[in-house]
Amino acid sequence: MKKVQNTLITALSLAMLGAASTSVNAEVTGNVGMTNDYLWRGTTQNNHDAAISGGIDYGHSSGIYAGTWVSDAALFGGTEVDLYGGFAGEVAGVSYDIGYITYNYPQESTSDFSEVYVSVGYSIAGVSYSVDSENETTYLAVDLGTEAMGLSLGLNFGMYMNEDSDSDYMHYGVSVGKGIGGDWDATFALSATDLEDGATGNENPQATVSISKSFDLIK
Hints:
By secondary structure, the protein is mostly beta strands. The protein contains 1 helix and 14 strands, in the order H-E-E-E-E-E-E-E-E-E-E-E-E-E-E. The protein has one helix at residues 8-12; strands spanning 26-35, 39-40, 43-44, 51-60, 64-73, 78-91, 94-104, 113-122, 125-132, 137-148, 151-162, 169-181, 184-193, 206-218.
């Protein structure tokens, strides 16, 4: 899903949300974030301007989850609203996530699209695959994530493929994150693609600085 810092390792951490409560082992969480540039799959979604985002997630101990996420997205008229749901869990140390997401642009609805996604992860590595059957596009991502000396370290590689055009491209990234107090996290990331500079607003390399916070709403 299109979040400020969207890595498979983070997504897989949603696998088994919830704790014993009157809501039958379920919880609702919120998140807010700010970044100097909203990048998605290596390309800017906000014309290289700062973006503010926020979302709400519901997770049940059975593995079922659903949520929504909103961000500035000047490239698509001003606002992006994502809706998603799926099922996630873990078997013998292997995490998995299967779901459906819609990307909606209220000011430019002709750009709306949706994807089915599946991901698996083990230890520090994860792989995800997304399919947009209507537009005949697919996306493959490989992520590595670990922690050292109080820092969260991440590497990612993605390949976007379009069956009907020559718009295929690859992107690469590295990130370093750290808690900065008050349950806020800061992340510095570098991203590059094999697109020519100027293509879809692309520049190489691109640096982003983001801060984000997650919090319990119902637990």
